[in-house]
Amino acid sequence: MSVEIRNPSEADEAPWRRYWAAYLTFYKADVSEEVTAHTWARILDPNSPVNARLAIVDGQVAGFAIHLIHETTWEMTPTCYLEDLFVDETIRGKGIGRALIDDLLTICQTNGWCRLYWHTANDNAQARKLYDSYCDANGFVCYQIELET
């Protein structure tokens, strides 16, 4: 299986939305259409810190990695946060998730960014098997307060 990793284009919106919906279902998350549309618009906006890379298999979108570039107080160079990673469930375990992460690592190294990091659910065993092959979990606990907007 050949995997191509590339930036998304406007023509990729429908397959991205299909996988975005599956990703949200997996995490039992409810994201409004307004937020979904805004996320897609930010992904396509070259001035946005929100970016995405798509995995293409046999000419079709097969997964995505949405990431944000931000400054950090602990280093001199920006850092990359992999916020959302999803691969078509029918072809998981075939190296597509690894290809997406490896692609982001290359981008980070090329740009001189100091780190790539991400979070996942503690019970996301399949993804953690992949993630553990890169590094150990850092032991931090994440706290999140939702605010009314």
What is the SS-derived class? alpha+beta
Helix segment count?
4
Nearest-angstrom radius of gyration? 15 Å
SSE topology string:
EHHEEEHEH
Q: Could you give a short account of the major beta sheet?
A: 5 strands, mixed
Question: What does this entry look like structurally?
Answer:
The chain has 149 residues and is α+β, with helices and mostly antiparallel strands. The chain has 4 helices and 5 strands, in the order βααβββαβα. It has a 5-stranded mixed sheet with strand order 1-2-3-4-5, with helices on both faces. The chain is globular, with a radius of gyration of 15 Å.
Could you name the key traits of this structure?
149 residues; alpha+beta; 4 helices
Outline:
The chain is 34% helix and 23% strand. It is of the alpha+beta class.
Chart the SSEs and their pairings.
Elements: E1 3-6, H1 13-26, H2 33-44, E2 50-57, E3 60-70, E4 79-87, H3 96-111, E5 116-118, H4 125-132
Parallel strand pairs: 4-5
Antiparallel strand pairs: 1-2, 2-3, 3-4
